[in-house]
Design goal:
globular, 14 strands, eight-stranded mixed β-sheet, 11 helices, alpha/beta, binds adenosine-5'-triphosphate, binds magnesium ion, Rossmann fold
Amino acid sequence: MSDDAPPLLEVRDLVVRFDVVTPGGPWGRRRTLTAVDGVHVSVRRGETLGLVGESGCGKSTTGRAVLQLEKPSAGEVIFDGRPIHEWWVQRWGGWRWDHRLRDLRRRMQMIFQDPSASLDPRMTVEAILAEPLRNFALASGSERRGRVQRLLEIVGLDPRFIRRYPHQFSGGQRQRIGIARALALEPDLIVADEPTSGLDVSIQAQIVNLLGRLQQELGLTMMFIAHDLATVRHVSDRIAVMHLGRIVELAAADRIVTAPLHPYTQALVAAVPVPDPIRERARPRLVLAGEPPSPLDPPAGCPFHTRCPVREERCRRESPPLRTVAAGHEVACHLVD
Ligand SMILES: Nc1ncnc2c1ncn2[C@@H]1O[C@H](COP(=O)(O)OP(=O)(O)OP(=O)(O)O)[C@@H](O)[C@H]1O
Ligand SMILES: [Mg+2]
């Protein structure tokens, strides 16, 4: 795919705020939490964009807002050239999807961290995988069964398992069913939110490899969310590093891993273990001091300055914008030339 084809997904200055109540006073204090604070990124067709960062930095909220499972507070989400963030209507005292967004659902799917929670325990695998096909009237009868069997094959499960229930599978197999369900409607975009975090380490690599293979074979466009760089780098073409609701660095996956520029990315890279135990012990380690700041009380200036090992005076005052420092490499840091 050529680089100048229009991207499948364009996210512009996306902001998601939540009203929360924190302890204080007789009824608590009402406050606004900014979970996503101006995310700007695009995803090309056939590309996998990795999204990494510590717990609470806003990865899931970004993924959910991209799929309009969360209504953006500000900013734009352009999917296949259309402004889908506008496709909401106010009804029954809340915001609902309008008909265009409901129709679009089949083109955008999510894979969740915990497959057990997202698979109905009372339904057979066949029923689980046939449901989306039925809802969108895509296939019926024997054709539908054939498609379900084919889906199982694609994700590496024996099609004879079709009448089994989710509890009759292992965790890794259940995640394969979750992936098959996301693929059933042949979506254009998949947001995989920590699809391997709930699995045994030995199984994680299998699922990562499966997603990588499917991405290649089916030409999927994917946003792959994880908190560890080790997982993300294997499937991603480019990686966006998130900190406190913002992207602080964005570049090709191997550049992020071999030549990170933002001190936060450098700390994440340093935390990835090296397979060789001798090199692993000898390696300098950059450890971040303290907890990440709360999105309820983000620090003034650069949001990373409270933990930054190289901060300067102006980092306390000015928030650095994300800017291009080399072809395809964006960084939000005052100290990077
Ligand atoms: N529905 C909600 N209401 C209030 N606050 C929320 C809601 N959803 C998320 N948050 C807050 O928004 C921030 C970002 O959360 P999010 O789940 O997007 O982070 P994350 O990067 O996916 O973290 P993790 O790695 O733990 O999954 C957190 O401070 C979280 O507590
Ligand atoms: Mg999350």
